[in-house]
Specification:
Largest sheet: 2 strands, antiparallel
Structural class: mainly alpha
Radius of gyration: 19 Å
Order of helices and strands: HHHHEHHHHEHH
Shape: globular
Number of strands: 2
Number of helices: 10
Strand order of the largest sheet: 1-2
């Protein structure tokens, strides 16, 4: 019974992630969803800035603090290791749902691309960003990243084993293609409002800070292996390669 509860919990957390991820695309792109970055709760500008900053801060703190190894060591004293990742995924998705629910509209338009061909290019970049982000998760291990592998192994009664480090496709071009995809998607807006700009600037700042912390953790875990990879492969912006890197850290 315990094994079935574990795998059921992991599966439910993954489904919540998928729904939250799909809603995020609609939220940022103002597509289909009832509340989006430009169509949410009306509020005075001061209140909107304050509330939206708090919502983004809740997501950033939860997402970053719970990913640190020190927190994981403490956290797994209370939460079984087999569902630690699923719990992280569940809480990250819940933080996003809270953001969708309570976001305040800031409707002032900062730019609006009206020329049809140019607007189509921006939309193409928007979808390219999401495609890069999603496919990047499979170039490391999508199912380990979102907790499914951990609960599956627990269901089979097998111990969890760390995955090896390797370079695959996008990870040969940049060290963090998942984050690159998000940045492209968040900034590729044919119509940029004040609310969308606040969202994009805050998330960009969070990503840049979080990556610095993540890089230190990867160096501490892998030493020269990651230092060599970091020397040969840029963080976010692809450039001509001087030589091939053999390994990549799993994020």
């Amino acid at each position: 019974m315990k094994r079935y509860l574990i795998i059921g919990y992991g599966a439910a957390s993954y489904v919540l992630f998928v729904l939250a991820f799909m809603y995020l695309i609609g939220f940022v792109g103002n597509i289909v969803v009832p509340r989006s970055v430009d169509h949410a709760i009306a509020a005075p500008i001061g209140q909107a800035i304050a509330v939206n900053a708090v919502l983004l801060g809740v997501f950033g703190v939860q997402h970053s603090v719970m990913a640190r190894q020190g927190f994981k060591r403490w956290w797994t004293r209370f939460v079984p290791p087999s569902i630690e990742r699923s719990t992280y995924v569940w809480l990250s998705s819940a933080a996003l749902v809270l953001l969708y629910w309570q976001w305040r509209t800031m409707p002032a338009v900062l730019w609006d691309v009206r020329q049809p061909a140019a607007r189509m290019v921006v939309w193409a970049l928007f979808w390219l960003g999401w495609a890069i982000a999603f496919t990047s998760t499979f170039m490391i291990n999508h199912f380990d990243l979102f907790g499914l592998r951990q609960v599956y192994l627990a269901w089979r009664g097998k111990p969890y084993t760390e995955l090896g480090f390797r370079t695959h496709l996008f990870y040969r071009l940049v060290r963090h293609p998942l984050m690159l995809g998000f940045l492209i998607a968040f900034w590729a807006a044919p119509t940029m409002t004040a609310g969308h700009l606040l969202f994009s600037i805050t998330i960009t700042g969070y990503i840049l800070i979080a990556l610095q912390i993540e890089e230190r953790s990867l160096v501490a875990a892998m030493g020269d292996q990651y230092r060599d990879y970091r020397r040969d492969v840029p963080m976010l912006i692809p450039r001509p390669r001087r030589q091939s890197a053999e390994t990549v850290g799993q994020h």
